[in-house]
Automatic annotation (TrEMBL):
It catalyses: oxaloacetate + phosphate = phosphoenolpyruvate + hydrogencarbonate. Transmembrane segments: none annotated. Keywords: Carbon dioxide fixation, Lyase, Magnesium, Pyruvate. PANTHER family: PHOSPHOENOLPYRUVATE CARBOXYLASE. One of its GO terms (molecular function) is phosphoenolpyruvate carboxylase activity. Belongs to the PEPCase type 1 family. Homotetramer. Pfam families: PEPcase. Forms oxaloacetate, a four-carbon dicarboxylic acid source for the tricarboxylic acid cycle. Gene3D superfamilies: Phosphoenolpyruvate/pyruvate domain. This is Phosphoenolpyruvate carboxylase.
Amino acid sequence: MTNTPSLTVRQNPDIKYLGKLLGDVIRSYGGDELYRRTEYIRSTSVDRHRGLADADAIDPGLDALSLDETLAFVRGFMLFSLLANLAEDRQGVAAEEGASVVEAVQLLASEGVDKDAILALLDNALIAPVLTAHPTEVRRKSMIDHKARIAELLLMKDDGDAETTEGDDLDEAIMRQIALLWQTRPLRRERLFVTDEVQISQSYMKDVFLPVLPKLYGKWEKVLGHRLPNFLKLNSWIGGDRDGNPFVDADAMREALSRAAETVIGYYLSRVHAMGAELSISTELAEVPDEVEALADASGDDALSRKDEPYRRALSGIYARLSATHLKLCGHVPGRPSPIQAEPYDNPQQLRDELAVLAHGLRGGGAKGEKQSVFATSGALGRLIRTVELFGFHLATLDMRQNSRFHERVVAELLKEAGVADDYLAQDEARRVEILRGELANNRPLVSPWADYSEETAKELSIIRAAAEAHQKYGPEVITNYNISNGESVSDILEVYVLLMEVGLYRAPENENAAPICPVMAVPLFETVADLENAPDVITEFFAIPEMLALAKTRGHQEVMIGYSDSNKDGGYLTSTWSLFKASDALTPIFAKAGVKMQLFHGRGGAVGRGGGSAFGAIKAQPKGTVAGRIRITEQGEVIAAKYGTQAGAESNLEAMTSAVLLNSLEPDKSDQAVQADFAAAMEKISQVAFTEYRDLVYSDDAFRTFFRQMTPLTEIAKLKIGSRPASRTQSDKIEDLRAIPWVFSWAQARVMLPGWYGVGQALAAFDDKAKLKEMAQSWPFFQATLSNMEMVLAKSDMGIAARYAELVEDRDMGQKFFNRIRAGWDQTRDILLEITDQPHLLAKSPSLFNSIELRLPYIEPLNHLQIELMKRLRAGEDDPRIGEGIQLSLNAIATALRNSG
Ligand code: PGA
């Protein structure tokens, strides 16, 4: 069933080692019989994939498995994939050339871009990964933690250690960890709540982001020879994104913010405590500046034993103030409270300034009489200062998000109750804008304390009030962006400002020459093909409103969010990618004319059908001028564990993102305008054909909905307890109303991966000038990235297996009709891709990815087979609960093996 039957796959030695241990665990805990059967299925599947003679004729014995054996078998294969992922991550399969800041700086230097230009860019830059709670992570955190522990143990093994630091035998310790994985329940029994999502994200914050970010800055400062501004930050949606998630309400948001404060202040307390133990500098042996002495004297620490140790005393005072801040912001004292009573900090800047006094003292205070010091700002104190600058008391800036339809209804109700407009919803866009501008011109509130608002309005108002409270409590960095899903018009943006005005966050201009003030920026999210096309007009109209232009100018930048998955579901892979490119490109001159910096926020998922693929490649391939140092990108679900699960992984991924931003923003544009225009014209034509083909398949015949629902495990996916939000916004079964995640997830499980390629083959084949396509594939980064992501998807899909899923469709003729069309499209797509990229088989030019995928395929196929059989039994009405459990396990296992779900 493989695309390339005769090629040999290079085995990664770690996979061999871990696979052998897993086999031993299965034998010890599952018994010889299970081990024997699993091993037989594994080896026959591998043989089949290697194209060994007669392998197809051998029955691997899948159908003979009992239900209990099936569950155990699926877990075994899932664990193998989990361990294979780990082994691959260790080998840095994803490492890309030029994907580090030092390489980017060198490359830029060779192109005549010096360090000053880089520093100037960074002065106005913002690079922000935005963690979302998007439900695509199928693994429980306990499984991820065991995996991380194995990675740590393997690192010790690399260093030649035979024992852990505690003295356990290393091989045994690894084996024990695998045995724990084997005995840990992979599926969640209970649904996830928003607080669980918050808690999971906090563990990444504490273990990974808090230590890694300052370390990276230190590293880059050495490369660039200068202190860097705070351009790389972490943002989050968890507890703030309520679009389609009724459980994100004011309380959930408050809880998320308070947990965040607890994590970050707890982290500072532990750092300050450790430094207190370390900085035993005595006035008898070192010169200590007056400022440090003054801080020590004001600290309230009057222990005689520390009388000559001003740094320690000052740190006691800082600890005491942090402890008081913890009480104020989190509502309780920290785990190790300070014995000293002190005033809380009003803001993180005060903490930073006190730490800076100490750093300054350390820098200047060499041995008595001798002015030299080994304490640079990059030491522990320097890193803590940077941490405070980046994470404040809020940890990660939290975005808010809601659907524009909600804002419309809420604003309509407020306007009606206040007697301003009777039927706002019936007004056209021009009139709506007029009404909203009228409201924004003065600070008069619309909300009346005596009105009896609908439940929806009351709920929306309360979360916006919670945002205003958060600003009071944690400072202006706590919430800076308000994303508007389904943003399609200027009124969608103004409505949010009207709501923010109600809680005092938006302040009307004080006079004709002044700008409004609003620390929260309303950000439209353009996410259908039509909305992306309209985006430039909407932004032009937005900037034509003087007070909005003034607001954006005062802030210096305006963000626009562009949605990858929904545009893909709407218009197919190629048209979505092309529309995103065109919209970004067309927005650039509009911002330049307005004199406002553009900040694009890329809403992309892990899977290619949701805009996934290499972030490094994707950022580098953005149209020139669209990045210019400012970018935000969503990081979702399984991508968070894969990219940021370990400090080393997080470092290299943040390096890659930063270096791609530097390269895209600063590399001289060598492209020839005429050639670019020619490529764009070709792309426009190709995209139109792809769009028509995709829309015709997915939307022209209602039967396709039934086909999709019956062929894929969509219903079973919706039951997976992997996120706090429902799989659908509404009850409708229309594809338009389905969220993009389950759409992509379902096609991936059935190995069709339709959202990652459908329509492309037909469109490319219909384009006459194949030489031009080849040229585009060779020299246009946008087209290259588009094809290379698609190639990965094609390599993971398998039409032979998909055909078996198609047989699940009750109406056989209808099922065959749609499936034949999909299969023909797949063949055509693969053939033309190989032709224009000049390759004998898929991934011929990406050997490590080829290896990685080929290694996994034999493990996925039996899982698909079992999934299909279990789905048949479930649909036939069998009610043994192990069937449902088996399907869920198989979903989990296949997603793990494919390395992305939805
Ligand atoms: P959304 O995200 O449904 O939250 O807009 C879609 C996605 O990330 O794929």
